[in-house]
């Protein structure tokens, strides 16, 4: 199977509704969620990074942790991943650097939130098989899933232009991109871990709460 240029785990949130517990260190079937998702990406990507705090809880897990370039929430995390995927000798361009279906998938970046315990191989492979435009993502239960998606590095200039005028959400960004939207067969793979009730429903063992100084 051809591989994406980069896989990025977006892990910059503060998990306030979980008392600050790092979502990615929650256990799913006995293994930390961040490790499970990282391995899924490593099977499909030339490189894997975590976008978050380099001094935070995900340091030392086997993948580089890179800091957000912008304090702009999840869209800023995706932009950081896109910029990291571009090497210095590949200037930003409004067109893909090479055809989206070129061997090896140059230019494509998987982005995954670190809080989806039921995301699976079949979902990621479906996404890859349908890739096109500047972004490819699912719509599940009437909602777009930009953090279980493929983004082409050609989307980076669009992000930059939008961030120059504020803090756009994914809806605004996608309206300005050539995006392929897929109807997900099921919403189950996109279930998020946001609250203790979610953890109980999804069979997740939460990480310990951080010590308070």
Largest sheet: 7 strands, mixed
* CATH evolutionary superfamily: Spore Coat Polysaccharide Biosynthesis Protein SpsA, Chain A
Q: What is the CATH architecture annotation?
A: Alpha-Beta Complex
Task: Determine the fraction of residues in helical runs and give it as a percent range.
Answer: 10-25%
* Class derived from helix and strand content: alpha/beta
Write the element-wise H/E pattern from the N-terminal end onward: EEEHEEHEHEEHHEH
Shape: globular
Description:
The protein has 6 helices and 9 strands. 42% of the residues are buried. The N and C termini lie far apart (48 Å). By secondary structure, the chain is an alpha/beta fold. The chain has one domain (6-202): Spore Coat Polysaccharide Biosynthesis Protein SpsA, Chain A, CATH 3.90.550.
List its salient traits:
alpha/beta; 213 residues; 9 strands; Spore Coat Polysaccharide Biosynthesis Protein SpsA, Chain A; seven-stranded mixed β-sheet; 6 helices; two-stranded antiparallel sheet
Please outline the helices and strands:
Layout: E1 6-10, E2 27-28, E3 31-32, H1 33-42, E4 48-51, E5 65-66, H2 73-85, E6 108-113, H3 121-129, E7 135-140, E8 143-152, H4 156-163, H5 170-175, E9 179-183, H6 196-202
Parallel strand pairs: 1-4, 1-6, 4-5, 7-9
Antiparallel strand pairs: 2-3, 6-8, 7-8
């Amino acid at each position: 199977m051809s591989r994406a240029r980069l896989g990025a785990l977006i892990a910059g949130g503060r998990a306030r509704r979980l008392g600050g517990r790092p979502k990615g260190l929650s256990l799913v079937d006995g293994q930390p969620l961040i490790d499970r998702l990282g391995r899924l990406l490593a099977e499909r990507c030339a490189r894997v990074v975590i976008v978050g705090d380099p001094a935070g809880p995900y340091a030392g897990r086997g993948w580089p942790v890179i800091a957000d370039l912008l304090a702009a929430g999840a869209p800023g995390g995706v932009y950081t991943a896109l910029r990291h995927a571009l090497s210095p000798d590949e200037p930003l361009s409004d067109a893909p650097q090479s055809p989206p279906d070129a061997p090896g998938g140059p230019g494509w970046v998987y982005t995954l939130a670190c809080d989806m315990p039921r995301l699976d191989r079949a979902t990621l492979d479906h996404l890859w098989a349908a890739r096109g435009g500047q972004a490819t993502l699912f719509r599940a239960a009437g909602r777009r899933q930009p953090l279980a998606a493929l983004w082409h590095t050609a989307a980076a200039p669009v992000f930059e232009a939008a961030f120059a005028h504020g803090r756009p959400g994914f809806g605004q960004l996608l309206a300005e991109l050539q995006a392929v939207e897929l109807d997900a067969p099921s919403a189950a793979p996109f279930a998020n871990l946001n609250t203790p009730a979610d953890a109980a429903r999804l069979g997740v063992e939460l990480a310990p709460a951080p010590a308070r100084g």
